[in-house]
Write a structure and sequence with these properties.
mainly alpha
Length: 95
């Protein structure tokens, strides 16, 4: 996974959340860049879903930055496929 792209995603969402935890961002970037693409995307989507649940992010924040996430992997080449993954995760949490 391309480190520069991962950094762009993580720092953009940190900015949206007004987070100053750069050490945490760095650790997350390191973790994601060392994962297989599909695993990293799934982890990132799951994390985003958790941040929505705790009101640190809004669903609109994810949707308006989908292009950053979809650019990370061929697994989710479109916003539609990524939205489907988010909906699946939300449905699993609500059942």
């Amino acid at each position: 996974m391309n480190r520069d792209q991962v950094e762009e995603v993580i720092y953009e969402f940190a900015k949206i959340m007004k987070s100053k935890k750069m050490k945490t961002c760095g650790e997350l970037i390191e973790k994601l860049t060392n994962m297989e693409d599909e695993d990293a995307i799934n982890y990132l989507v799951s994390l985003a879903s958790d941040l929505i649940d705790t009101n640190k992010l809004k669903l609109e924040d994810i949707y308006s930055n989908m292009n950053l996430i979809t650019s990370l992997s061929k697994e989710y080449p479109t916003e539609k496929s990524l939205k489907a993954k988010l909906i699946l995760l939300e449905n699993k949490k609500n059942h």
